């Protein structure tokens, strides 16, 4: 799975930063590629749940459509019927993140090489530094 994420991220970065595809066009193509199948799958699971009385609830259905079901299952309700969609959610979040970076870069000419360092500093400030393990010296 990690290899897929690396390849997908590489391809998306090339589309946005090398080919300099417009961000709106980038999102239009991504949504047109992902959402029809996601909508049909999610709706079929939800419809089957309504008719059988077992399966997913409306909140889980909405979390599937908004690509937030990975968070929903962690914080509210785990449902094995949707647990495999986590990778699609992560990919959707990566599209959004790369789109924001591309928009910032093209609008404000913000240097791309500054983003990783700023993210690490932000994460350390917000989340704290990792604690040393007791067994490490």
Structural features, described:
The protein is elongated, with a radius of gyration of 19 Å. It has helices at residues 2-18, 23-52, 58-65, 69-75, 86-108, 114-127. With 137 residues, it is an all-alpha fold. α1 (2-18) runs parallel beside α5. 72% of the residues lie in helices and 0% in strands. The chain has one domain (2-127).
Fold blueprint:
Elements: H1 2-18, H2 23-52, H3 58-65, H4 69-75, H5 86-108, H6 114-127
Helix pairs in contact: 1-5, 2-3, 2-5, 3-4
- Which oligomerization state do the chains in this entry correspond to? single chain
What is the arithmetic mean of pLDDT?
78
Tally of strands: 0
Rg from Cα: 19 Å
Structural class determined from secondary elements: mainly alpha
Proportion of residues in helical segments: over 70%
Q: Give the number of domains.
A: 1
Give the CA-CA distance, first to last residue: 33 Å
Task: Give the low-confidence spans.
Answer: none
Give a nutshell description of this structure.
The protein has about 140 residues and is mainly α. The chain has six helices and no strands.
Index terms:
137 residues, membrane, mainly alpha, elongated, 0% strand, transmembrane, transmembrane helix
């Amino acid at each position: 799975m990690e290899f897929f994420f690396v390849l997908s991220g590489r391809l998306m970065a090339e589309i946005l930063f090398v080919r300099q595809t417009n961000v709106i066009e980038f999102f239009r193509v991504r949504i047109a590629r992902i959402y029809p199948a996601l909508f049909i799958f999610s709706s079929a699971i939800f419809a089957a749940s309504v008719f059988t009385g077992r399966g997913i609830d409306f909140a889980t259905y909405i979390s599937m459509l908004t690509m937030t079901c990975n968070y929903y299952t962690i914080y509210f309700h785990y449902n094995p019927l949707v647990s495999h969609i986590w990778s699609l959610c992560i990919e959707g979040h990566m599209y959004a993140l790369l789109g924001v970076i591309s928009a910032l870069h093209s609008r404000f000419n913000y240097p791309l090489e500054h983003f990783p360092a700023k993210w690490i500093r932000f994460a350390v400030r917000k989340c704290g530094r990792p604690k040393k393990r007791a067994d490490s010296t």
